[in-house]
Every structure is written in structure tokens, then in C-alpha cells.
Write a structure and sequence with these properties.
The protein is α/β, with parallel strands linked by helices. It has helices at about 15-25, 30-45, 50-55, 70-85, 85-95, 105-120, 125-140, 145-160, 160-165, 170, 175-195, 210-220, 255-260, 280-285, 295-310, 350-355, 355-375, 395-405, and strands at about 205, 220, 230, 245-250, 270, 290-295, 315-320, 330-335, 375-385, 410, 430-435, 450-460. The strands form two sheets. Strands 5, 6, 7, 8, 9, 10, 11 and 12 form an eight-stranded mixed beta sheet that branches. Strands 2-3-1-4 form a four-stranded antiparallel beta sheet, covered by helices on one side. A hairpin with a 5-residue loop joins strand 2 and strand 3. Helix 2 crosses helix 4 (about 70-85), helix 2 (about 30-45) crosses helix 6 and helix 2 (about 30-45) packs across helix 7 (about 125-140).
Length: about 450
């Protein structure tokens, strides 16, 4: 008796997932491109964070089952696509005389990630074009435009210099953020910020001790602020000292607020909104008795796992920092939820997922956190407030308003020597205002900081 054969699957019939799998097996790298287009579309359409789409429960379905190298490639493509999204859109618009076709499925994002590879990644142009065309053919709605994909990307390859010329602020910053930065930092300052966002940063590490020794071991340099900046990229878990808990990843600017708190051995210190825990680790490593508070149990699980690797201890509390009833504490650190516009150099999705209204709502939350943090600080104690935002409503204006509401609080001005002698980081009120354009260096890998604000306050007895 003849054995029944499974039905043949033609394009557009049967399982779409199966068609993608077969195509990916026949064309290495195609699955990574299909995933990159889908993830980029999801981030922009739904406002999801890039990090969330590549890890944990929020892992994008197109990444499930991919090999680690394909996931890493997809992430690299998505990241550079978002970092240069304005320039890419501008270039593609000039090549599409009649605009992008409507109801064309993933066409926009297939073109976007293809352009990103041609313009900014070390991918042969012919490979980027070929895989983009194949990705278009796998999507039922964009398949009809496969020839268009081929023509547009080949034209882009020939005219790249002409089509990508332009200022970073005008092209790669959303108009509402560009307007804000011009108003706050002036034309030159705003342009310097946007230009810094174009440069891909390397990793910064906070080490428990012997920064110079670890810089030598890992092929990095010690920054004036004391962080170790790596000059080369490598998987984090493969670096010496990771398993032994000798260091953790933390941007150099993000490492400043905990140092400014000046926690001493035996002091009771509260870290409000503690996850993911880099600042908490700094406080614990200084010998303080730390209470780490965050409303997210899931994020605190990651903090706990990191502390286990680092060999550090802290009391971990799942609670709303606005109403937590512990204290009083010798010192309180408030790393408040914010718009995160200071982290665009590391998280380019922020530029395209945040909206003006986010700043207003987050500023209201920050005000409540600050008032409660002041209540948790004992008379004679210290309070440090920080945000990774470039927006004054989330930084300078918050502190000015807090001081008006609380006459028993005064500023404890920060001196340049507390931030590695980088006087450009200190504003006229003795607060830290780090910008992405700070810490210039001829070697782009060693330049820049996250945008950060930090103020230190003293509660009178």
C-alpha cells in the first residue's frame, strides 16, 4: 500500500511559520532579518522597550528558536535602525517618489533594516539587498513589492553619501525632543547631544576594587570618575571577573549618584526604585546596611540574582516607594522613574517611544517620591535624587520645587573633585548635569556619558 504523502506547501499556503523556517534554513541570516523587521515594527507601533523584546517573558515570537548568533545579529540590526531611524526614513523617502505603498505588510521595516545594514553595518551590500528581497517575499502583503525593495536598496547603495548627508539634530532626533533640547541647552548644545547619540557606546563597568588592574585585564581604561570603560566588545559573561562577581555593568554617569551619597559602613541606607540594582550594589559594597525597595517583584528577582553573583547583601522589599513605611534612614537614594531621554545613546528606542505627555506624568510621580524620600531621611541625614533624563522638569525644577516645599532641606553642593574633576558636569547650583556630549575623546569608543541629573540634599536636625 502506498504511503500517504504530506501536502506540499506553496508560498502563500499552509503554515507561514513553516515557510519561514524552510527559507531560513536555505538562506543563512534570513531569519535574523525577518525577526529584526518584526521587532523594529513592534517597538515603534506599540512603544515596547528594545531590551524587553530580546529577553524574558516579552521575548518577541520571531526570536524564539533562533540561535544565539542570529538573536545577536537581529539586535544589532534593530539597534542601529533605531539609532539612525530619522536618517534612514529621510533617505528612503527621497527614493520613493510616490511614498511607501499602503497595506504593504512589513515593507517599511524590511526597507528600514535593509538600509541600516547597507549604511551602518559591516554587511556586504549585495547580501543586505538579497536578504531583504527574500524577507519581502516571505510576507504575503509585501511579496508584491519585492522588486521595489531590490530597486530602492540598490539605489541607496549607490547614492549613500548624498542621501545621508545632514545634521544629527535635524535628522535623528524627533522634532519635539530637538525643540526641547534647543530651548534648554542652546543650539550648539542640542546639536552636540544629538551627535553623541549617533555614536554606539561601549560598556562601562563598576568594579569592587582595583579599577586600574581590571582595566588592564579587560582591555579598557579607567575614566576620571573611576569607572572602567571597555574598548572592545565581547559577551559579558565571558569576561574575566564576571563569574567571580568582581564588577557589574553600569554607565559611568549612572555610577555617580550612589558615590555622591557617600554611604559609610554600618549606615542604614534606603534605595528607592532600586531595580535593576547597580546603585544598590555600590551602596552595599561600601558596607552600608541597604534596604532595596521596588514595586516590581520581577525586577527585584533579577537584582537578587545579581547580588548573589556579586556576593553582596541587602534587604529586598517589594513595595511602592511612595508609601513605604520603613525608616528613618541615615541616607536615601531616589533613582526615580523618568523619561530616560539621557539614555538614548544606549537605548535608541527611547527617542521614538516616549511622548511629551510622559514627561508631565512622570514629573508628578517624581514629586511624590521626593516628598516621601524626605520623610524617610532622618534629621542630619542625606538625600540624593537622580534621573537619567535630559529634561529640566525631571531634574533641576524638581529640586527647586522640593526645596520650596521643605524648608528643613538644603542643598549639599557637589564639588568637581567628587566627579573626577569634570567641572563641566556641575551646574551653578552644585548639582550634576551630565550630558551625552560630555567626556569628549578623539577615540569615539571612549567618548560620552549617559545624560544624568543628580542633586544631594541635607536634612537639618
Amino acid at each position: 500500500m502506498r504511503r500517504a504523502q504530506p501536502p506540499r506547501t506553496k508560498f502563500g499556503q499552509g503554515s507561514k511559520a513553516e515557510a519561514e523556517r524552510l527559507a531560513a534554513e536555505a538562506h543563512p541570516g534570513l531569519a535574523a532579518r525577518v525577526a529584526a523587521a518584526a521587532v523594529a515594527a513592534d517597538i515603534i507601533a506599540s512603544g515596547h522597550a528594545l531590551d524587553d523584546k530580546f529577553a524574558g517573558a516579552s521575548l518577541h515570537s520571531k526570536l524564539v528558536g533562533l540561535e544565539a548568533r542570529d538573536v545577536a545579529l537581529a539586535r544589532s540590526i534593530v539597534t542601529v535602525s533605531l539609532r539612525r531611524l530619522g536618517t534612514i526614513r529621510h533617505a528612503l523617502a527621497r527614493l520613493l517618489d510616490k511614498g511607501a505603498p499602503r497595506n504593504a505588510g512589513q515593507l517599511e521595516w524590511i526597507l528600514t533594516i535593509g538600509a541600516a545594514q547597507i549604511l551602518y553595518l559591516d554587511v556586504p551590500d549585495h547580501a543586505a539587498v538579497d536578504l531583504a528581497v527574500r524577507a519581502a517575499r516571505l510576507d504575503a502583503k509585501s511579496a508584491h513589492y519585492a522588486n521595489l525593495v531590490n530597486a530602492v536598496l540598490r539605489n541607496l547603495s549607490r547614492r549613500r553619501d548624498e542621501l545621508t548627508a545632514g545634521d544629527a539634530l535635524d535628522l535623528d532626533a524627533p522634532a519635539w525632543l530637538a525643540s526641547r533640547w534647543r530651548k534648554t541647552y542652546g543650539e550648539a548644545g542640542a546639536r552636540a547631544i544629538a551627535e553623541a547619540h549617533r555614536r554606539e557606546p561601549t560598556l562601562d563597568l563598576t568594579v569592587k576594587s582595583d579599577a586600574a588592574g581590571w582595566a588592564e585585564k579587560l582591555g579598557g581604561v579607567v575614566l576620571p570618575t573611576g569607572s572602567v570603560r571597555l574598548t572592545n566588545r565581547a559577551p559579558i559573561i565571558e569576561l574575566e571577573g564576571y563569574g567571580a562577581g568582581e564588577w557589574w555593568v553600569q554607565d559611568a554617569a549612572a555610577a555617580l549618584p550612589a558615590r555622591l551619597l557617600g554611604a559609610r559602613a554600618g549606615e542604614r541606607v534606603a534605595d528607592l526604585c532600586a531595580a535593576p540594582g547597580g546603585k544598590t550594589a555600590q551602596l552595599a559594597a561600601a558596607g552600608a546596611v541597604v534596604t532595596a525597595i521596588d514595586r516590581s517583584a520581577e525586577r527585584l528577582k533579577r537584582l537578587s540574582a545579581n547580588f548573589k553573583r556579586l556576593g553582596l547583601d541587602a534587604e529586598i522589599v517589594v513595595a511602592d516607594a511612595k508609601t513605604y513605611s520603613g525608616g528613618p534612614f541615615d541616607a536615601v537614594l531616589v533613582d526615580a522613574p523618568c523619561s530616560a531621554t539621557g539614555t538614548i545613546r544606549r537605548h535608541p528606542d527611547v527617542a521614538w517611544t516616549k511622548k511629551p505627555g510622559d514627561i508631565t506624568s512622570l514629573a508628578a510621580l517624581q514629586e511624590k517620591l521626593l516628598d516621601h524620600a524626605a520623610e524617610l531621611t532622618r534629621p542630619g541625614g542625606r538625600l540624593v535624587y537622580c534621573t537619567c533624563s535630559l529634561e529640566p522638569e525631571e531634574g533641576e525644577r524638581q529640586i527647586a520645587a522640593l526645596l520650596r516645599r521643605n524648608p528643613d532641606l538644603t542643598r549639599s553642593p557637589i564639588a568637581p573633585e567628587e566627579v573626577g574633576g569634570l567641572s563641566a558636569l556641575i551646574n551653578s547650583d552644585g548639582e550634576v548635569r551630565a550630558l551625552p556630549s560630555h567626556l569628549p575623546n578623539d577615540d569615539g569608543r571612549l567618548a560620552g556619558l549617559d545624560g544624568f541629573f543628580a542633586a544631594r540634599l541635607f536634612r537639618q536636625g
